[in-house]
């Protein structure tokens, strides 16, 4: 889950894109990039780090023009520390294209060979997003048959991407001299919304991973990009949409609602906040049945993502809700950090217990999910150190049992605590007196209660059913092996790769 954004405006967009990426920062902390377009030129600056560290005033000044795209990266393919894999990616043919991608391709290796051998194109990194860009570029060149781009050629190229690419992709592309393109894979696994701002100079359009970017930048939400759909925003301010998949089916990733997205976003017609509140309601019902005799004094959330569910759970159980952990706001999300050592150290630095809320108490801690168990282990110990006499833990998500191949960095089942331990063993390992997980059906019901029209979900990390149908046991074994290698290498490389890159394009003239 990276964050992507694209805009066509009647004013310079550099600050708009920067502010938008700041709002999407929770979706990726490893690298950031912005590209803009003015007349017949593209400008780009990208590099490793948080948005506020990547862009200096001189970089911002070099990003001229009234349209552009941006990206914050949480790597799922290639190398976490390789600055060359920061996005957007650029190719100069046909026309000049820049692309930013959220998701993960499951047939990247086969495509890479095909691109080299059949399409006669060169891929210069291990990023699947560069592969996606080259597939799109090849399809667009073929569809436009040597002429300037037109809508038919662009939509045909998206159909070509759907035909050849498997996996998850929410994408924004700049086509030089033509416009901004946004599209989503045929299952709509990763979110993508667009909105408008009607000004005296004409309509401005903004596309983003989450609606929270529209709110912040003063755009009105129009709707989600539909699964399989492509939308073109011309640099003249016009908008055209086309369904480019044969059998689109909406199946959004469950983990977006559990953890990835901000609660103030609306994804596929679902307020993430409302869905999390419902998760808390269902979890409270189950807690009552499972632990009818538990005498809990206080419900405490593990900040940040579990707060809406924890508050509702406390209300439903008629128990006081207290903020027992204080979060250091300068430390990012630990789950999306690369490498287990850094994740483990960060939990302790990030959260600290308010002893008064724990001393002599039986506490019910609530988290949105238990994935590797890093957070829960540390937190439960911290609660005990602060004087808690009993510690229960409730998870608003079911046990995470399977690898994720669609844009969440969980390629190795061996890292997932619930994949190799039964519930009792997980309870023992994290050191809780009682443990409760959400039921998968209840999690789906929580989201459907907000938007009943969603019939299917991408639920693979909970039930092992991979919606795209192409994920074989052999593939999972391969990424399991590679996942372990890459995790190991990331551990060794922590802190490396601070170089920023201005690739291929005229950038940072004064840098
Ligand atoms: O079992 P684990 O492997 O530790 O992963 C799960 C934890 O990681 C996430 O927190 P994170 O600190 O990333 O973000 P948050 O502040 O949004 O909760 C999530 O909210 C859980 O607390
Ligand atoms: N999490 C994501 O969406 C990652 C995008 C892309 N696969 C990358 O690794 O850069
Ligand atoms: Mg958390």
UniProtKB/TrEMBL annotation:
The keyword Cell membrane does not apply. It catalyses: 5-phospho-beta-D-ribosylamine + L-glutamate + diphosphate = 5-phospho-alpha-D-ribose 1-diphosphate + L-glutamine + H2O. InterPro entries: GATase_2_dom (IPR017932), Ntn_hydrolases_N (IPR029055), PRTase-like (IPR029057), PRTase_dom (IPR000836), PurF (IPR005854), PurF_N (IPR035584). The active site is at residue 2. Residues 483-511 are annotated as: Disordered. Residues 2-236 form the Glutamine amidotransferase type-2 domain. Its EC number is 2.4.2.14. Keywords: Glutamine amidotransferase, Glycosyltransferase, Magnesium, Metal-binding, Purine biosynthesis, Transferase. This is Amidophosphoribosyltransferase. The gene is purF.
């Amino acid at each position: 889950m990276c964050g992507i954004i694209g805009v066509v405006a009647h004013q310079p967009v550099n600050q708009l894109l920067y502010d938008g990426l700041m709002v999407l920062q929770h979706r990726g902390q490893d690298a950031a990039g912005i590209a803009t377009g003015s007349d017949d030129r593209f400008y780009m600056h990208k590099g490793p780090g948080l948005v506020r560290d990547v862009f200096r005033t001189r970089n911002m000044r070099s990003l001229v023009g009234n349209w552009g795209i941006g990206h914050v990266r949480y790597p799922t393919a290639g190398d976490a520390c390789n600055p060359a894999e920061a996005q957007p990616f650029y190719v100069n043919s046909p026309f000049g294209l820049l692309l930013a991608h959220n998701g993960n391709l499951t047939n990247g290796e086969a495509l890479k060979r095909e691109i080299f051998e059949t399409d006669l194109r060169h891929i210069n990194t291990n990023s699947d997003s560069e592969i996606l860009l080259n597939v799109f570029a090849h399809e667009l060149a073929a569809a436009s048959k040597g002429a300037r781009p037109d809508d038919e050629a662009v939509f045909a190229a998206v159909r070509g991407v759907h035909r050849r690419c498997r996996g998850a992709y929410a994408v924004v592309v700049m086509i030089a001299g033509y416009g901004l393109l946004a599209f989503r894979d045929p299952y709509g696994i990763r979110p993508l919304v667009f909105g408008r701002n009607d000004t005296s100079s004409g309509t401005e359009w903004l596309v983003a991973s989450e609606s929270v970017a529209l709110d912040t930048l003063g755009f009105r939400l129009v709707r989600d990009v539909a699964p399989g759909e492509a939308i073109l925003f011309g640099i003249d301010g016009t908008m055209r949409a086309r369904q480019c998949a044969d059998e689109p089916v909406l199946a959004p990733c469950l983990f977006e609602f559990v953890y990835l997205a901000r609660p103030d976003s609306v994804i596929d017609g679902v307020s993430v906040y409302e869905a999390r509140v419902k998760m808390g309601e269902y979890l409270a019902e189950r807690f009552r049945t499972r632990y009818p005799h538990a005498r809990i004094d206080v419900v405490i959330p593990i900040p940040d993502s579990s707060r809406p569910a924890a508050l509702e759970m406390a209300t439903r159980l008629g128990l006081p809700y207290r903020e027992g952990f204080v979060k250091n706001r300068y430390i990012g999300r630990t789950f999306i950090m690369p490498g287990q050592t850094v994740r483990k150290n960060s939990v302790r630095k990030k959260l600290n217990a308010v002893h008064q809320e724990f001393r002599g108490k039986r506490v019910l801690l609530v988290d949105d999910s238990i994935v590797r168990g890093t957070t829960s282990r540390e937190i439960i110990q911290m609660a005990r150190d602060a004087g808690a006499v009993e510690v229960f833990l409730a998870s608003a998500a079911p046990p995470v049992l399977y690898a994720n191949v669609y844009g969440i960095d969980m390629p190795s089942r061996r890292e997932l605590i619930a994949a190799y331990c039964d519930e009792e063993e997980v309870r023992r390992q994290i050191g809780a007196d009682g443990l409760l997980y959400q039921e998968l059906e209840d999690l789906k019901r929580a989201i459907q209660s907000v938007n009943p029209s969603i019939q299917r979900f991408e639920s693979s990390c909970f039930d092992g059913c991979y919606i795209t149908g192409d994920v074989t046991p052999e593939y999972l074994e391969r990424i399991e092996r590679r996942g372990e290698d890459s995790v190991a290498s990331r551990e060794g490389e922590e802190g490396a790769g601070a170089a920023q890159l201005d690739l291929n394009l005229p950038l940072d003239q004064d840098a």
